[in-house]
Structures are given as C-alpha cells and as structure tokens.
Amino acid sequence: MSLHQPILVFGATGQQGGSVAAALLKAGHSVRAIVRDLSSPGALALRDAGAELVEGSFDDKASMEQAMQDVQGVFSVQPSSPGGTVTDEEEVRYGIVVADLAAEAGVQHLVYSSGAAVGDKPTGVAHFDTKMRIEAHVRALPITWTIVRPAIFMEMLVMPGFGLDEDRFTFFARPDQSMQFIAVEDIGRIVATVFAAPKRFGGQTFEIAGDQLTGRELETLFSREAGRPIAYARFSDDVLAANPFLAKLTRLLDEGPVAGHADLDALRAIEPGLTRFSTWLAGSGREPFARALGAKGAWAYNSA
Does the model's pTM come out above 0.85? Predict the structure, then answer.
C-alpha cells in the first residue's frame, strides 16, 4: 500500500480507532479521520498528530461518502449498545453502511473490528450477534476485507466496579480458568500490519490478543503491583442471578467464546512487541490501576 494515499479511520477519537490512527501515523501512513466535532480535544489532537479531519458521523451518509474519496483503506469500528450511545440495530446499520460505501468507492482494503466472542452461531448476547451480522455482510462484498476480533481489553480490568477499591477483584473466570486479553494500543499495531500486507491478510478473520491469564494469575499480578494482597474471586451466584447480562457473559466464558482463542505465537510472529499484561500493568496501566484502587462505583455495563 502507498504511504501517501490516505487510510480512513472511523472512531479515531475513541479507543480502537485512536489506536489504529496512532499506529498508522507512526508507520508513516497518511490518515484521514471522520469526527463529529472538528474542534473537540480529541479531534484537535488527531490534527496535531498529522491526521486529516473530515466532519461527519455514521448518520451522515454524504459525509462518509466524501471521506472515502481517494482513500486506499478503511478501518471500520462502531459503538455498541453496552456503551449506551447506540442501539443494536443502529450498530448493524452503521457497520453495513460503512462496508457498502467502501465497496462502492473502490477502496482497496476494508478492515473491520469485530469481537473475540463472535463466531458462526449466535451467542444470545446482542452486541456480539450484531457483529456476526456485520461480518457476514462484509464477507459478501466485492472488496478485499480483513476481520479482526479483539479479545477483552486490558483496560477493562481497571474499570470501577470490580472491587479493587476494597482490595479484591471479582471477574468472570474461575481462579484456575484462563481468558485472553489485549492492550488497546496493540489493536492499532496489528491493524497497521494488516493494512501493510493486504495480499497476506485479505479474506482472513482472526482473533487478536496479547496475553492469556487465569484468575489466580491476575490476583498475583494485581497484588504485586498494589504492594498488598488483592484477593481474586469469580462473580458469586447471587450476583449472577441478579444480573442476567453478567450471567450470559459468564456462561459464554464457560462455553468458550469469551475466553478467547487467538494464536498468540502466530500473532507474536506478526507483531513481536505485543504487550503482556504484567508489562501493561507496570507501564501504561499503572495510573488507571492506581485510580481503580481508590475508585468506588458500578461497572458501566451492568445495566446493558
């Protein structure tokens, strides 16, 4: 791919899109970002980093068509219902419109970010099944596509509501059960590598992660970083009975999809610097972890 013809990044002021935009710019690519507000702090930071900005939104088809003119690649990611800003049907509609417009514009390579729990069969969790529907649509289009399925973000582990403020950590896995995780920054690095080699990665769907840990290993790492014991436990039966959403996610972990099945060795061959959780916790995760140790509150997705 040419470094000069731009790659259009959706969600560039958010976590995944921001990571992709930063990685592409670091690799020397021209980046175009579609943003709601050209004067927002996130948009201004993108501009200062070297990105070209186009004002628009998922509800503004004309702005998306304009943004796709003369781009060689599109990174597509949409907000989902647990974030509280869109419905499940809106997520599907946005994902399909972006993919259709990319195909109509003759874009060389579309990279869609889905989710690690997504597969060929519905999960019963709406914001996973929305992505399954978008994936199926993308695969049917006359365009070179790649679908990445990120594991649970390491950043999620230090959100309020899991008990770190009480020197404990409560999560989905049993103490001896493993789950895969990825640092958001690594999503961008992997996607930049995918864009650099469309012939190699075109037509592929694969999970991406940087580490795999059991609940007990999380307890060890959190305790070491905190300098005091952080006790790990799975969500109690009472908590799961009172929260159907958490119960569904826990069931999907036991059944396999949420656990993650990325080939970590193959991913490290593609991107040797993938971040392990211990490295993340001692580095970019250190400050949010410290905040979580003193932050009370409920998990933001509890009502999803």
Answer: yes
Q: What is the chain written as a DSSP string?
A: --SSS-EEETTTTSHHHHHHHHHHHHTT--EEEEES-TTSHHHHHHHHHT-EEEE--TT-HHHHHHHTTT-SEEEE----GGGTSS-HHHHHHHHHHHHHHHHHTT-SEEEEE--TT--SS--S-HHHHHHHHHHHHHHTSSS-EEEEEE-EEGGGGGSTTSSGGGTEEEESS-TT-EEEEE-HHHHHHHHHHHHH-HHHHTTEEEEE-SEEEEHHHHHHHHHHHHTS--EEEEPPHHHHHH-HHHHHHHHHHHHSGGG----HHHHHHH-TTPPPHHHHHHTTTHHHHHHHHT-----TTTT-
Q: Could you tell me the domains of the chain?
A: 7-152+184-208 (3.40.50.720)
Mind listing the pLDDT tens digit for each residue in 161-185?
Answer: 899 999 999 999 999 999 999 999 9
